[in-house]
């Protein structure tokens, strides 16, 4: 999560050029850890925002074909489905094979707190934030699998795994705090939209607020026009199809909930 002040973004004269910058900017950080279908998704976002989705669907088909494409015999149809899911609300059914088994329950629970944020969104955001590393400490001090700032976790964190402590390094505690915080932001964003203080989908604005802060969304009157903020939303959307099991091979995971090192402080 990044909530430091950002340089004002320059508006590009070309919508497709802006989208390309967003996707390329999103490849930083954990972008290099994205799965092949996520990379395909970023390519899809570039062409969707440029209004050329139909023309570039064959390109996405080739990407899915050469990267395995989840074993589909129809990469063209799968590419269309990836585009459809990416443009959607993130409320599809999550594929249990795409997340660690010990985290499926907290991801489901966190995705059921409010209507705006479903389990697919929670899982996709975790991949973007930490690549499912429960002991990660970010360069800005954000902690745990959901990379919440300490003050935010202190506000929204609870002992959700029942181990007698509240810790950002306990994955279930972190994921549930993530869900509560996202839903709190979603309520704030809804007010901005209703008061004509921001334009955009409630989900996109909520994700941007998680990354850059609600004040940044309010000041920009939408998703901030920076590579960081727009790229953040882009990458998370590009992962929706993976977590619905479309175009994604089943990964293998080790347990994560007990991974908190004794050296980490609660």
If you had to describe this structure to a student in words, what would you say it looks like?
- This protein is mainly α and 266 residues long.
- The chain has a single domain (15-243), classed as Lysozyme.
- Helices cover 51% and strands 0% of the residues.
- Helix 5 packs across helix 6 (119-130), helix 5 (104-110) runs parallel beside helix 8 and helix 6 packs across helix 11.
- The longest helix has 24 residues, at 171-194.
- The chain starts with 14 loop residues before the first helix and ends in a 23-residue tail after the last helix.
- Mean pLDDT is 78; it is low at 4-67 and 258-266.
Any chance you could write out the topology, listing elements then pairs?
Elements: H1 15-26, H2 36-49, H3 53-66, H4 75-86, H5 104-110, H6 119-130, H7 150-156, H8 171-194, H9 202-212, H10 214-220, H11 227-238, H12 240-243
DSSP E strands, number:
0
Query: Which parts are unreliable, with pLDDT below 50 for 5 consecutive residues or more?
Result: 4-67, 258-266
The value of Rg in angstroms is 18 Å
Largest sheet entry: none
Total helices: the number is 12
The domain count comes to 1
For the record, what CATH class applies?
A: Mainly Alpha
CATH architecture: Orthogonal Bundle
Structural class: mainly alpha
The share of residues in helices is 40-55%
Bin the strand percentage: under 5%
Distance between the termini: 19 Å
How would the global form be characterised?
Answer: globular
What is this structure, in a nutshell?
With 266 residues, the protein is mainly α. It has helices at residues 15-26, 36-49, 53-66, 75-86, 104-110, 119-130, 150-156, 171-194, 202-212, 214-220, 227-238, 240-243.
């Amino acid at each position: 999560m990044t909530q430091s002040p950002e340089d004002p973004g320059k508006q590009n004269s070309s919508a497709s050029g802006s989208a390309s910058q967003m996707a390329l900017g999103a490849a930083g950080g954990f972008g290099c850890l994205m799965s092949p279908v996520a990379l395909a998704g970023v390519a899809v976002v570039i062409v969707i925002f440029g209004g050329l989705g139909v023309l570039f669907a064959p390109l996405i088909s080739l990407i899915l074909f050469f990267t395995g494409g989840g074993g589909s015999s129809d990469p063209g149809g799968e590419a269309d489905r990836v585009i459809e899911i990416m443009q959607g609300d993130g409320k599809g059914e999550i594929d249990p094979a795409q997340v660690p088994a010990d985290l499926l329950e907290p991801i489901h629970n966190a995705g059921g707190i409010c209507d705006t944020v479903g389990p697919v969104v929670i899982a996709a955001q975790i991949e973007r934030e930490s690549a499912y590393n429960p002991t990660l400490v970010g360069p800005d001090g954000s902690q745990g699998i959901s990379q919440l700032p300490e003050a935010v976790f202190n506000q929204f964190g609870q002992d959700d795994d029942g181990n007698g402590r509240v810790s950002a390094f306990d994955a279930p505690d972190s994921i549930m705090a993530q869900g509560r915080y996202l839903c709190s932001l979603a309520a704030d964003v809804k007010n901005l939209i209703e008061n004509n203080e921001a334009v955009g989908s409630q989900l996109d604005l909520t994700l941007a607020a998680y990354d850059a802060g609600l004040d940044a969304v309010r000041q920009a009157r939408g998703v901030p026009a920076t590579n960081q903020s727009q790229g953040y939303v882009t990458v998370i959307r590009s992962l929706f199809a993976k977590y619905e099991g479309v175009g994604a091979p089943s990964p293998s995971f080790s347990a994560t909930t007990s991974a908190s090192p004794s050296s980490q402080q609660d």
